[in-house]
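Key idea: predict the complex, not the pieces.
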Amino acid sequence: MPTDLGSLLVQLFSGLSRAMMLFLVSSGLSLIFGVMNILNFAHAALWLLGGYITFSVYTALVEHYGVSFVFLVPAVVAGTLALFAIGLAIERTLIRRMYGRELPEQLLLTFALILIIGDLIRLFWGVQNRRIILPIEPLPILGTFMNPYLFVIMVIGLVVAGFLWWFLARTRTGKIVRAAVYSRDMVSALGIRIPIIYGLVYAMGVAIAALSAGVFLPIMPIGLGLDMDLIVQCFAVVVIGGFGSIVGTFVASLLVGIVYSFSILIWPGGALAIIFIILVAVLIWRPWGLFGTEMRF
Amino acid sequence: MINGLYRKLDLSIRVLLVLAILFLLLPLLPGRFPLVVGTEILILGLLALSFNMIYGYMGQISFGHAAFFGLGAYTSALILRPLIEAGQLGYLGFFLALAAAVPISALGALIVGFFCVRLTGIYFAILSLAFGELLFYIVFSWYSFTKGDDGIQGLMPPFVFKSGVIYYYFTFAVVGITALLLRKISRSPFGYTLRMLRDNQNRTAFLGIDIRRVMLLNFVIAGAFAGLAGALWGPFQRSVSPALLGWHQSGVPVFMTLIGGAAHFAGPLVGSIIYTALNAYVTQFTSYWPLTIGLIILCVVLFLPGGLLSVIDIWVHRGRKADT
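Result:
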C-alpha cells in the first residue's frame, strides 16, 4: 500500500471527485423523494442513459471535427437536456399515476423502469463498455502522477452544488420546492400547482444526474450494470445524509466518496462492505439520517 | 361447477386443485421441454410463495429475497460437488444436500432479517436490496470457497432422479408439501398476526405482540423455504452461479407475485406459470427479455395491480349473491 504523500493526495482528490459525482446523482434522488415521496429506483439507470448520450454526442463531434476536449461541453449539455426532457416525459406519463398508490406498487414501477432503460441502452449501444479519452497530460504531483481532470470534476461539482443551493434558497420556485418537501398539502392549499412542481423536480433531479455522468465519463468507462452498483451507493448517501436534505447529501457524499477511495487503498474488496456497514448502522440508529427530519421517517 | 365441498373452498384452493391436476398430467405432453419448464415453474413458484409471506402477508417488499435462494443453491452445490467428484453420490448425499440448505438459508435470513425488520416500507426495501447485493458480492468475490464467477458446475441428482420425469414429480411432491405447509402457516394465528402487522403496525403493538419477533420469524421462514427452492434448483440446472443471489433474480418472485396476485395464496404460483412460460417462449425469439418483462410489469402495475387472480376473483363473484 503506497503511503507516500503524493499517492495519498491523489487518492484524496480521486475520492473528492467521486464524492462530487455521488453528490450530484444523489441530490436528485433525495430531492425527488423529499418532494414527491417516490423512491426513484431508476435514478441510476437514467444517470447511465445520460452518460451514454453524452458519449454518443462527443464521439460524433470528434469523428467530424477531430479530437478536442472542448467538445465535451456540448456533449454534456446535450446529455443533460435530453435527460431533462426524458425525465419530464417519464414523470408525466408514469410517475404521475403513482402518487396515490401503495408503496410497493411505486417501487415496482421504478424497478421495472430499471429493466426497461437498461435493456434499451443495450439495444442502442450494445454491451461494450464505453469511455472517452481526453487528450490531457498527467499532472506530476509530489512524486506521482494525477489526472488534472479530477480538478475539473470537483469544480463543476461545486458549481452545480452552488447552483442547486442558489436555486433552492434564493429563487421563488426553489423555495416552493423546499416548502413542498416540508408540507405538500399546504403548498397545494396555497394555490400552487403541485403537478408542475413535481415534473420540474423530477426532470431536474434526473438532468443533474445525467450531467454528472457526462462529466465523469473521461475518468470512468460506463457499461451495463453500472447503474445497480451506483444506486446502492446513492441509497447509502441519501440514507446517511437524510432524505430531502441537500446539505445532508453533500456531507454524506463526501463521507462515502472518501471512505470508498481510501478503502480501495487499504482493502480493495471491502470498499463496498465498509460503506454498507455505515449504511446499516445509520439505518438502525438514526434512520432519518444525519440531516433528515425525524417526522418524515 | 361441482357442488357441495367445492363450493366451500376459497379461490386459492380451487386454483391449487386445478393446477395440481394439470401439473400431474404435464408429462403427457411430448418432448423434454414441457418437463424442464414445468420443473422450473414449480421451483420458482416455491420461491415466489415464500416471497409472498413477506410481501402479501406481512406487507413489506423485499428486493433481496433471491439471496436466500442462492444461499440454498450454493449450500446444496457445495455438498454435492465433492460427493460427485469422489463418485460417492447417493440418495443419502442428495437428501442431505437438500436438507442442509434449509437451516443455512434460514440462518442467512436470521442475520439479514435481524436488521431489516427494524424498518418498514422504503427503508426495508432499500436494506433488503443492499443485503442482497452484499451477499451476491461475497459469493462473487470469495473465489477460494465458491469459485466466484465461474460458479459450481457438474451438479447432478443421483440415480433415478437423473430422469427428467422422476425429478419433475419429486419436485412436484416437495413443492406441493411445502406449499401446503405454507398455507397452514398462513391460516394459523401466526399468519393472521402477520396480516395484522401488514394492516396496522401500531395497533398490533398495542395488543402486546412483539412485532420484531413476529416479523423476524416470518422472514426466517420465508428465507428457509427460498433456500429449499434453491437447493432443488442446483441439481436441476446442473450448475449454480452467483447471479442466483443478484437483484435480477430477486425481481423474479416479485414479478411473479405481482402478475399472479399478492392477495391470494395461489397468486405467486399462478404468476410463476405465466412468468416462466412467457420467459421460455420469449427468449426463443429475442434476448431482450428484461425489456419485455419490464414493460409487462409496467402495464400490470398501472392497470392490474391486483394480478390475475384478483381479476378471476371478481369474475367468479360477479354471478354470486352477496358474499362476505
